[in-house]
């Protein structure tokens, strides 16, 4: 009996190995992003048995036995059909690739019709194209813009309301008002109390939050697809009916002041805020997002209403939806909760930001802490420009990864810090390349000298072909994996639309990254690392002029 059992198990294991790939192709959800949805191999075809087998399959946590069970039943019922469907999938893949040029370079094996997404599951290239090709931007009569990124492979919807209002568009007296309004939008409306807003979202099992940047403010929710309308109802009520009650304002002012205190008590936050102010000195991007104590104490409800009425207008607003909904469903939701509520078409007063006259400066702060926090800002590439892509590749090679030159030199070989990073930050018509680290005060000069040495070596020798290849893999993989998060897609689409007025195209971005050469990176590096225009900051028990130090190293 034992011998028979062993023989049966061995035979089943052999069958399992042969059927793993077929099961994966047949039962992996359409687009291979997140679970849910009907696989393309069986969609709208006769003899569709997927609804029978689905209870046995959890595509993210499928055990070997359940995979074998499904494969066995499916093989008996429609083995020929799977082979037919696979041929149809490959045919559609060839058609889609010819039309869209989608993902030819990410296949695991040119002889196969699929590439490995995980150990278990295989995803055909023709299942990948739609998540970009189905994205749409709709501009309503009022000027309101809607971005819809459908993904029927998920069971969630991320909804974001983006407003072109940030610290860069504030006057000195208004400093921090965009962020203050973000807080006050949660403090009650004409229809809901502050508790009602969060309780209603919590009751749906959903999430709600917001953030403010130098160029925009975003309010967003993440929920199951069946609750998307209810979440947009809450966001709409906040957008149109925020009350800015004087009692709530008084309390929330204290909260924001505590947030400001917390930021100033965090050395790396303080270091970066000082650096930004020094680098953008005299420019709108100089202003801090949180504002100042003086400006926050001076604000009242009338100030907040006046600023909101000016910037929270259809022409300055973008609705970004990503997840399990169609474009037509997205349009209906946007019309019901936003477009139909605007009294008139109105454009935002927001004007393009001029390029900052970067001259270089140094800022410091004395704090009784254990380490010295140091940062440098070099002139960088503006958002959505050809140089911005090359700058990202430069960062991948030079400063953002554990295998990057800065990390390997300053941390791994010299042991001077725990973390060090070099990365680009980009705005409209402006950009910077940041290098940040923290080290013991006695090691500051050694760390700065090591950073300067790596910059000089980069400028002298450039990057290698292998470094370029690796950098492209990191960037492209980051773009593709980012599509797996509906929140990330919603934020990326919304931010891009606010900044450029255009629809984000991942295939276009991938093509731009793939087209960058070593020479392009060298040219961008030569423009970035201008020591005559570098700004620097230092937060330490005994601050030292690290700007002078790096220029003279």
Label this structure with key terms.
single chain, 553 residues, alpha+beta, Cytochrome Bc1 Complex, Chain A, domain 1, 3 domains, six-stranded mixed β-sheet, 20 helices, 13 strands
Task: Give structural notes.
With 553 residues, the chain is α+β, with helices and mostly antiparallel strands. The protein folds into three domains: 130 residues, no CATH class; 209 residues, 2-Layer Sandwich (Cytochrome Bc1 Complex, Chain A, domain 1), CATH 3.30.830.10; 191 residues, 2-Layer Sandwich (Cytochrome Bc1 Complex, Chain A, domain 1). The protein has 20 helices and 13 strands. The strands form three sheets. The chain has a six-stranded mixed sheet with strand order 3-4-8-5-7-6, with helices on both faces. A hairpin with a 5-residue loop joins β3 and β4. α1 runs parallel beside α3 and α13 crosses α19. The longest helix has 37 residues. The protein is globular, with a radius of gyration of 27 Å. The protein starts with a helix and ends with a helix. 44% of the residues are buried. About 20% of the residues have low confidence.
């Amino acid at each position: 009996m034992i011998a028979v059992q062993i023989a049966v198990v061995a035979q089943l294991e052999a069958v399992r190995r042969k059927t793993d790939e077929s099961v994966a192709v047949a039962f992996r959800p359409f687009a291979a992003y997140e679970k849910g949805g009907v696989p393309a191999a069986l969609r709208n075809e006769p003899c569709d048995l997927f609804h029978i087998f689905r209870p046995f399959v959890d595509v993210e946590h499928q055990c070997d036995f359940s995979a074998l069970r499904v494969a066995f039943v499916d093989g008996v019922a429609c083995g020929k059909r799977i082979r037919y469907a696979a041929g149809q999938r490959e045919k559609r893949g060839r058609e889609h690739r010819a039309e869209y040029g989608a993902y030819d370079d990410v296949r695991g094996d040119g002889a196969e019709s699929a590439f490995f997404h995980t150990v278990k599951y295989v995803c055909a290239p023709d299942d990948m194209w739609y998540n970009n090709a189905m994205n749409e931007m709709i501009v309503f009569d009022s000027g309101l813009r809607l971005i819809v990124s459908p993904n029927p492979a998920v069971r969630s919807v991320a909804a974001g309301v983006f407003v072109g209002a940030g610290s860069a568009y504030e006057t000195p007296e208004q400093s921090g008002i965009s962020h203050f309004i973000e807080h006050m939008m949660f403090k009650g409306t004409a229809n809901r109390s502050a508790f009602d807003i969060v309780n209603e979202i919590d009751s749906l099992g959903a999430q709600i939050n917001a953030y403010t940047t130098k160029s925009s403010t975003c309010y967003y929710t993440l929920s199951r697809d069946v609750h998307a309308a209810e979440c947009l109802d809450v966001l709409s009520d906040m957008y149109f009916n925020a009350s800015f009650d004087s009692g709530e304002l008084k309390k929330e002012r204290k909260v924001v002041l505590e947030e400001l205190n917390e930021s100033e008590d965090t050395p790396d936050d303080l270091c970066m805020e000082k650096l930004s102010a020094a680098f953008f000195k005299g420019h709108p991007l100089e202003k801090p997002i949180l504002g100042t104590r003086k400006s926050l104490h001076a604000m009242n409800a009338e100030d907040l209403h006046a600023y909101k009425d000016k910037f929270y207008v259809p022409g300055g607003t973008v609705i970004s939806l990503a997840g399990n909904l169609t474009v037509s469903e997205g349009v209906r939701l946007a019309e019901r909760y936003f477009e139909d509520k605007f009294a008139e078409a109105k454009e935002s007063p927001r004007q393009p930001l001029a390029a900052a006259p970067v001259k270089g400066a140094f800022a410091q702060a004395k704090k009784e802490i254990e380490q010295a926090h140091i940062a440098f800002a070099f002139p960088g590439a503006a958002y959505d420009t050809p140089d911005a892509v090359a700058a990202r590749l430069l960062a991948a090679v030079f400063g953002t990864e554990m295998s990057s030159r800065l990390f390997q030199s300053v941390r791994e070989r010299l042991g001077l810090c725990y973390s060090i990073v070099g990365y680009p930050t980009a705005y409209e018509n402006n950009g910077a390349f940041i290098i940040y680290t923290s080290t013991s005060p006695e090691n500051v000069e050694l760390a700065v000298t090591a950073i300067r040495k790596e910059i000089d070596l980069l400028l002298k020798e450039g990057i290698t072909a292998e470094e370029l290849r690796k950098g492209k893999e990191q960037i492209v993989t980051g773009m593709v994996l980012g599509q797996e998060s509906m929140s990330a897609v919603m934020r990326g689409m919304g931010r891009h639309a606010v900044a450029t007025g255009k629809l984000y195209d991942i295939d276009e971005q991938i093509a731009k990254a793939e087209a960058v050469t070593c020479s392009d990176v060298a040219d961008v590096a030569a423009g970035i690392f201008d020591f005559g225009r570098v700004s620097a900051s230092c937060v330490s028990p005994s601050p030292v002029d690290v700007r002078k130090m790096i220029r003279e190293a």
